[in-house]
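Handout, section B. The chain below has 105 residues.
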Amino acid sequence: MSDTMLLGALRMPLPDNPDPLTLAQLAGRAREAAERIEHDAAEIARMRSALDWYAEMAKTMQRATLRVDNQVALHILKQMALDGGKRAREALTSNERPVRPCNRS
């Protein structure tokens, strides 16, 4: 179910006396939402880790440049060149949600 449809299903008002089927469907959607929240939190953590690394490399390069410390600047440049964007690619490609069969409970 798409995020928009899931959000709509969760925000739909319940009748005053919902039948067991309606409650079971709502519980299923709530579990699906919980799984997505957990997945998204892990994805954000992966992306944040990569972003923090690149930010630290840039800050270190800036300090080395301002101090005219060519050895440190070259070391940082070498680390970034050897990384070649690997951290960013890994953070971006592991963001696909697992496809789960529709639970009709």
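Note. The radius of gyration is 23 Å. Compare this with the example in section A.
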